[in-house]
Each structure stands twice: as C-alpha cells, then as structure tokens.
C-alpha cells in the first residue's frame, strides 16, 4: 500500500511530466521521482521528447549509486522494449531499486509488460496511484495509442442556423477574431492540421499556427490535404512555412493509418463539410470543438454535409464537456465555444 510520501512523489512526478516546453508528440509526457527508504527525494527526472532519455533513466542517471534500494514513483508503467532508448524496466532492475509505484499502465502493446519484468526480478510493484490524473495528463496520446490511430479533433465554426459561409461567398469567416485566435491555440496542440481538396480550392488557407501579429509561431504541424483532385502548386497550403502532404484518397481510415505510420498522434480536422461528414460517418471523430456565432444566414454552405441520418433517433449526439464564451472586441459579437466528445455508443462505430 502506498504511503503519503509516495502520494506526494506521484503528484510531483505529474508536475515534472507536464514541464513547459517539452514536445508532446509522438511520445507521452512522463515524470519520475526516486525516494529513499525514509521518504526523502533522491532524484527527479522527466522525459523531454522523442529520442531523449525516458523519465526513469533521467532520474537514475542523476541518482547514481543512491538509486539502490530506492522506490521509483513513475506516472506511466516503465517501458519494456528497446526503441530509440533502452527499456526502463531493465534499467530499474540494473539500478537495484527496491520498489516501483506507477500510475497508468502503458497502453502501447509494444512497450507494455514492464510491471511483469520488474516483478520477475523480485521488485515490489504497485500500480494505479493517481491513475486518473496520469491518464488525463496524456489523454490524447492514451486514446490514440489504445485505438492505434491518431486522435481526431473536429473543429467547425457555424452560425446559429448551421452555416459556415454565406451563399454569395462574401464571408471568409463566420467566427470572430477571438475564436480564430483560440483556433490557433488549439492548432498548436496538434501535430496535423487537415482539410479536404475543396477547402484548399475555395478558401486557399495556409493552415499554420500564427500569433496575433499573423507570424508563424514555433514548430508547425504537418498540413494534410485529403482528396483525389489535382491542386495548383501555388496554393498557400503548399508554401514553405510548414511541411505539407497530399493524400489522394477519400477513405478516412486509410488517411489515419498513413498518419499513424508517420508517427502522427493528433489530427485537427478543419474542413470542409464533406471531409468532416466522412469522418463522422466512419466513427473516427474523438472530440468536437464548435464555435457558434450569434447570427443567422438562412442560406449558404452547411457546416457539415449529409451524415446519412434520416431519423431523430439516429442523431449524432456528442456529450458537452465544456462551454466557453469568447468575448467580442472592436464591435464584434461574442462567440461561444462548445467542446464535445462522442458517446460510447458512437465511439464504438469504428470497431
């Protein structure tokens, strides 16, 4: 049974795992604290991104011989495979730790099994301490790993009557500037921004993360265009501000399989209505972010295309997880951001 020192250490490990500036893709965020027999901290470590030492290895390197007989408190089950770095379970055995406490079992079938390796070596193992908090820290990575495909966030902007553009094409955006700034914040959390060929043809978006001065900000997500039609090379999505990929298919599963192969873990699906509908129909949307502008158009492009739903009982009914009002500025009306996730029944469609 865990004691107060181990609980405090796990909370500290969660803080270390969430260290600012650490790339979140494609690896999970992980923290580790080594405790002496009296409950004092021997060393701390955290993972700093793909190819760098894992949290356990980082802490063991700092501890040196002081790791012998210690308790390792880790936010994720120590890995059991050799990838860019060696297996952490074996490193803990070699260091002579006495006990390992971890929060979340590793959902990666290639890396799981560390707990069994540790037990086989005579190390005491306990799992599940603050497991919910650890899963929440790596929510997107965990779901993507469990499903063996990228997590898909579908973002849409709509008027009160479900329109994404006016009938005469005069409105490039129906959302406010505050909503568009918020969109850039969410883009920065993903490693793919995706649209269809029609969106590229009609709207010519750049699909980069930009700051308030419209300058590119930080490492850019991969820009992915889905669809079979040829596109002019001068479209902004193909400029040199970020990498781009044109996947000439209409199959959402094939798209996600290819992105998973490229170690992409979080897709920000921005458009348009046809591509979005294809992902919804396939049961491949994990989260919905919807910006609602407080006006009516009565006509124009729908925010989503035909979903094949003919009766109210079959409606796509995601569960609301957050509602945020984004205040207007310079005469603009406020927008409302809804964050939603599909029900368990809708999520099971993909299987």
TrEMBL record:
Keywords: Hydrolase, Metal-binding, Multifunctional enzyme, NADP, Oxidoreductase, Riboflavin biosynthesis, Zinc
Cofactor: Zn(2+)
Reactions listed under catalytic activity: 2,5-diamino-6-hydroxy-4-(5-phosphoribosylamino)-pyrimidine + H2O + H(+) = 5-amino-6-(5-phospho-D-ribosylamino)uracil + NH4(+); 5-amino-6-(5-phospho-D-ribitylamino)uracil + NADP(+) = 5-amino-6-(5-phospho-D-ribosylamino)uracil + NADPH + H(+)
Membership in a protein family: In the C-terminal section; belongs to the HTP reductase family. In the N-terminal section; belongs to the cytidine and deoxycytidylate deaminase family.
Name of protein: Riboflavin biosynthesis protein RibD
Pathway: Cofactor biosynthesis; riboflavin biosynthesis; 5-amino-6-(D-ribitylamino)uracil from GTP: step 3/4; Cofactor biosynthesis; riboflavin biosynthesis; 5-amino-6-(D-ribitylamino)uracil from GTP: step 2/4
Cofactor binding note: Binds 1 zinc ion.
Source species of the chain: Nocardioides eburneus
InterPro entries per UniProt: APOBEC/CMP_deaminase_Zn-bd, CMP_dCMP_dom, Cytidine_deaminase-like, DHFR-like_dom_sf, Eubact_RibD, RibDG_C, Riboflavin_Biosynth_HTPR
Domain of life according to the entry: Bacteria
EC number: 3.5.4.26, 1.1.1.193
Residues of the CMP/dCMP-type deaminase domain: 4-126
Molecular-function GO terms, alphabetical: 5-amino-6-(5-phosphoribosylamino)uracil reductase activity; diaminohydroxyphosphoribosylaminopyrimidine deaminase activity
């Amino acid at each position: 049974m865990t004691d107060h020192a181990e609980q405090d250490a796990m909370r500290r490990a969660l803080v270390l795992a969430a260290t600012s500036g650490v790339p979140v893709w494609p690896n999970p965020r992980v923290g580790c604290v080594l405790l002496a027999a009296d409950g004092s901290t021997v060393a701390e470590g955290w993972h700093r991104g793909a190819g760098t030492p894992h949290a356990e290895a980082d802490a063991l390197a700092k501890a040196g011989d002081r790791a012998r007989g210690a308790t390792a408190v880790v936010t994720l089950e120590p890995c059991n495979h050799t990838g860019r770095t060696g297996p952490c379970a074996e490193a803990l055995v070699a260091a002579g730790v006495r006990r390992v406490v971890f929060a979340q079992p590793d959902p990666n079938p290639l890396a799981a099994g560390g707990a069994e390796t540790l037990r086989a070596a005579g190390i005491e193992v306990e799992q599940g301490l603050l497991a919910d908090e650890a899963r929440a820290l790596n929510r997107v990575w965990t779901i993507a790993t469990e499903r063996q495909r990228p997590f898909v966030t579908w973002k849409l902007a709509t008027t009160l009557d479900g329109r994404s553009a006016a009938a005469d094409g005069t409105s490039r955006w129906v959302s406010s500037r505050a909503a568009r700034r918020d969109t850039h914040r969410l883009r920065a959390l993903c490693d793919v921004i995706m649209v269809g060929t029609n969106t590229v043809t009609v709207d010519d978006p750049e699909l980069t993360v930009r700051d308030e001065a419209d300058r590119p900000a930080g490492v850019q997500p991969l820009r992915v265009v889905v669809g079979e039609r040829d596109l002019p090379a001068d479209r902004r999505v193909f400029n040199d501000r970020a990498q781009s990929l044109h996947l000439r298919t209409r199959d959402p599963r094939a798209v996600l399989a290819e992105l998973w192969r490229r170690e992409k873990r979080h897709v920000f699906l921005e458009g348009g209505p046809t591509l979005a509908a294809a992902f919804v129909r396939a049961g491949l949307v994990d989260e919905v972010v919807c910006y609602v502008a407080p006006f009516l158009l009565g006509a124009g492009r729908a925010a989503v295309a035909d979903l094949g739903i003919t009766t109210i009982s079959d409606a796509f009914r995601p569960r609301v997880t957050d509602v945020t009002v984004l205040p207007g500025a310079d005469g603009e009306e406020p927008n409302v951001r809804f964050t939603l996730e599909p029900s368990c029944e809708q999520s099971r469609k993909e299987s």
